[in-house]
Structure formats: structure tokens, C-alpha cells
């Protein structure tokens, strides 16, 4: 697709895709989706034709169903072995993708998730039992196929689909060695699909797809910003938008209010506690059912979680230093609204679809691409959402401006009453120091007790 090409809108309802009646029934009656989103309408027909695909669409626009529906449709006509492999950067996204395949495929469809934090031998047995679809993080999958023996290596010999969900993340340097090794294990003849909300350069991504799939056929490229009508194409020519601009991500701006909170560095925790207190006691901002607070590091998550608990705000945390059972429990409690505040690193920033999230707070200013994925956890579908980013001047001003340039929208400032912040600041700072100490040394008296015991024995 050229930069001036208009993407066909496609069928206006699922009946126009030629799907099986059983699959249509599951989509309409069980999942309760009445009409396809734009990315689904554009991509499903092309994937059913057998084309490789690159798709960029906003968070919450239905990208998972855009590749899962045609995969399940094709699998239902030829159900054998491992039919499709979906690679994803995070464990939590992997489990969510599995749920959607299970909904679409029904009881006859066997889906397994291969991620870290789960018994190694159990996952080898799951792989060699020939499930229909495998959803995996690259690191754990590579570990299994490298050390699991020849039976595991042969699992993917008849693979028909490879999907990179959050492709931009999976194709960066962190995953490069893993992805190249996994590629060698897979058959050349297969459909390869790249999906993400943030693709910086579509031409570069096209070349990566051709190289990765070893297929020189022209892939179908769906870019949300170029899918409207000829008027938009003409407008784009008239305004001479650069190709770089056209590949920037769009958010569901009609549903999402984006603001920033300016605060002094030493007052940031006080501002956060005052904001949470106003939500809890004064319902301001209104109608906040649940929220995600994003922190940069695992340690920040731990400290914030302890601080919130000490200040009377129940919460769960989600980061890579928590074992898998605890991660799933935290996510389950949050999804079911037993706990309405989740404190997380970027393991929760991609793909998680929880309709009750009305507020996202960036405790620190993230990189622009991460910002798009984080704030995309709210304002999904027709829901309204609010995203707040804490900004400490002057150091964070340039970071904020980078985000505004990236999303092509200026954030507005939200004021927090500093008099109220000062009223609670001493208490907050004291408890923050206690949380810091607790994270550095969870039990400072344990070591002393052990030494004393040795001396007395």
C-alpha cells in the first residue's frame, strides 16, 4: 500500500466475511460483537485470502480479534497439529489472547500459553500434546524448544500462522536473538501477521516482514490514519504531511481526556495521595470505577504499593518480580473489581482489556510509545477515560513535549489543591521513607536474630 492509497472499509457486518455459522454464532451470541471494527473489517478479508499483513490500529480497536477470527475460521476447515503461533512480549497479554481464542474456537479448540513462571515439564507436555494454537513469550518458548528435545522442535513443522502481537516491541533489540532462533524452527510456508498500536515506519516494518517471513509477496498494510476516504487523502496531499507523521499512532481521542499534573519533585507523592483521596472521598474526578498507576521500575511499584496501603488505599501490584501465580491472582482481583487500584510496570501496558479502567496515572513521564500503550488501557470502545501524567519541572518538560509531538495533541493541566497537599505531606513523606526501607530490607531484624541465635548456641 502506498502512502496515498485508501484502505477498503470492508464488510459492515460479520456475515459478509464468509465465516462459518458456528463461528458467527460465537461472535454474535457469546462475545456479543455485532459489527466489526475498522481494523477487523479491513484485515479479516485479506488474511482469509492468505496474505501476510501489517496492521497498526489504536489501542482498544479490536486488533486481537482481527487476526484471531480468520485464523480460527481457517483452522476449523483443517484442524491439525499446531496451526498458529502467537508471540507476545508479556505474560498477561498472552493469557488474554488465549481467552479470545477459546471464545472463538469453543471446546474443540485447544490453546496453550507458554510463559515464564510456570512448571517447565508441564509446558513441555502441553506442547508435545499438539495444541491447535500456542500463545507464547519468546524467552520461554526458546527455552523449551532449545532444551526440550526433538519432540518439542518438531511441534511447529506444520505451522500455518505466525503472529507477532505488539510487533514493534518484539522486533526491537531486546528480543532480536530470540526471534531469529525461533524463526529458524518454523516452516517457511506460512502466513505472517504483524500487529501493533505503535509502528514508527511502515516501509521499514514491511521490509522486516518480508525478511522475517521469507516471502517477497506484497503484504497487506493497514494503517488506521489512512483508512478513511478520498477526502482525507486529498487533505493529506494539500497539507503535505510527512510519511513519518502518517505512521504515528492515534488514540481513541474522542473517548480519552489527557491531562498532566505539575508538582515539585519532593511533593509528588503528596500530590498523588491528595488526588487519590479526592477520588475516594469527593468523587473528583467523577465516575472512577478502577485505575492503573504506572511506575517505571519494579522497585517503584513495590514502594508505591506499600505507601498506598499505609495511606489506606487498597491495591494490588503487577511487575516482573512477582511469581506467576501472584501475578494472575492480582490481575484476577483487579478484573473482577475486588480491588480497584492496580500499580504496575509496563507489563500491564500492552493489550490488557479491562472495561472498568476509567483512569490511568503515569507516576513518571514515560517514553512516547509507552505512553500510547499505557493510556490505551482506558477510554476503550465507547467508554470514557482519563489519563493523568505527573510532571516535575524543569526536567520532565521536554519529555512531555515529546509525547505531545508524538500523539499530535497538547495535554491540558489539571490543578491539585496544594494547600491540601501540604496538610498531608509530612505523613506521606514519613510513610514513603518507611516503604523505601521495607523494600530495601523486608525484615531488618531477621539477620540480627539469626546472628544472635548462633552466638547463644
TrEMBL record:
PROSITE patterns: DEAD_ATP_HELICASE, HELICASE_ATP_BIND_1, HELICASE_CTER, Q_MOTIF. A motif (Q motif) lies at residues 12-41. It comes from the Eukaryota. The keyword Transmembrane helix does not apply. Residues 12-41 form the DEAD-box RNA helicase Q domain. The keyword ATP-binding applies. Residues 271-422 form the Helicase C-terminal domain. Residues 44-217 form the Helicase ATP-binding domain. SMART domains: DEXDc (SM00487), HELICc (SM00490). Its EC number is 3.6.4.13. It is an enzyme of class 3 (hydrolase). Keywords: ATP-binding, Helicase, Hydrolase, Nucleotide-binding. Coiled coil: none annotated. Belongs to the DEAD box helicase family. This is RNA helicase. It comes from Orchesella dallaii.
Amino acid at each position: 500500500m502506498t502512502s496515498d492509497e485508501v484502505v477498503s472499509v470492508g464488510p459492515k457486518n460479520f456475515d459478509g466475511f464468509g465465516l462459518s455459522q458456528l463461528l458467527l454464532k460465537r461472535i454474535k451470541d457469546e462475545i456479543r460483537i455485532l459489527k466489526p471494527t475498522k481494523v477487523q473489517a479491513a484485515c479479516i478479508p485479506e488474511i482469509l485470502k492468505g496474505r501476510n499483513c501489517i496492521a497498526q490500529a489504536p489501542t482498544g480497536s479490536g486488533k486481537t480479534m482481527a487476526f484471531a477470527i480468520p485464523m480460527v475460521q481457517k483452522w476449523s476447515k483443517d484442524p491439525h497439529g499446531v496451526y498458529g503461533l502467537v508471540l507476545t512480549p508479556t505474560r498477561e497479554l498472552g493469557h488474554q489472547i488465549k481467552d479470545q481464542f477459546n471464545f472463538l474456537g469453543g471446546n474443540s479448540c485447544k490453546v496453550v500459553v507458554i510463559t515464564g513462571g510456570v512448571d517447565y515439564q508441564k509446558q513441555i507436555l502441553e506442547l508435545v500434546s499438539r495444541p491447535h494454537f500456542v500463545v507464547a513469550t519468546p524467552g520461554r518458548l526458546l527455552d523449551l524448544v532449545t532444551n526440550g528435545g526433538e519432540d518439542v522442535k518438531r511441534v511447529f513443522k506444520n505451522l500455518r500462522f505466525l503472529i507477532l502481537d505488539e510487533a514493534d516491541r518484539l522486533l526491537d533489540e531486546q528480543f532480536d536473538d530470540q526471534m531469529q532462533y525461533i524463526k529458524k524452527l518454523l516452516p517457511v510456508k506460512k502466513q505472517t501477521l504483524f500487529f501493533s498500536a505503535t509502528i514508527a515506519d511502515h516501509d521499514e516494518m514491511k521490509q522486516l516482514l518480508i525478511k522475517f517471513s521469507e516471502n517477497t509477496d506484497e503484504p497487506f498494510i493497514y494503517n488506521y490514519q489512512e483508512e478513511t476516504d478520498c477526502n482525507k487523502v486529498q487533505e493529506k496531499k494539500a497539507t503535505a504531511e510527512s510519511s513519518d507523521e502518517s505512521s504515528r499512532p492515534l488514540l481513541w481521542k474522542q473517548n480519552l481526556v489527557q491531562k498532566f499534573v505539575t508538582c515539585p519533585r519532593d511533593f509528588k507523592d503528596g500530590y498523588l495521595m491528595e488526588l487519590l483521596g479526592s477520588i475516594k472521598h469527593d468523587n473528583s474526578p467523577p465516575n472512577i470505577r478502577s485505575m492503573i498507576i504506572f511506575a517505571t521500575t519494579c522497585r517503584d511499584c513495590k514502594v508505591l504499593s506499600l505507601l498506598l496501603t499505609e495511606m489506606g488505599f487498597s491495591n494490588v501490584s503487577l511487575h516482573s518480580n512477582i511469581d506467576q501465580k501472584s501475578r494472575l491472582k492480582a490481575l484476577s482481583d483487579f478484573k473482577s473489581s475486588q480491588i480497584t487500584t492496580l500499580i504496575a510496570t509496563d507489563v500491564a501496558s500492552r493489550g490488557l482489556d479491562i472495561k472498568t479502567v476509567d483512569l490511568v496515572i503515569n507516576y513518571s513521564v514515560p517514553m512516547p510509545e509507552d505512553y500510547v500503550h499505557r493510556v490505551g488501557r482506558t477510554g476503550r470502545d465507547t467508554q470514557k477515560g482519563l489519563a493523568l501524567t505527573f510532571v516535575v519541572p524543569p526536567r520532565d518538560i521536554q519529555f512531555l513535549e515529546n509525547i505531545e509531538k508524538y500523539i499530535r495533541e497538547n495535554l491540558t493541566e489539571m490543578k491539585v489543591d496544594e494547600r491540601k497537599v501540604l496538610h498531608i505531606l509530612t505523613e506521606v513523606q514519613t510513610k514513603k521513607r518507611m516503604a523505601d526501607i521495607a523494600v530495601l530490607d523486608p525484615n531488618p531484624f531477621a539477620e540480627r536474630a539469626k546472628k544472635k541465635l548462633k552466638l547463644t548456641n
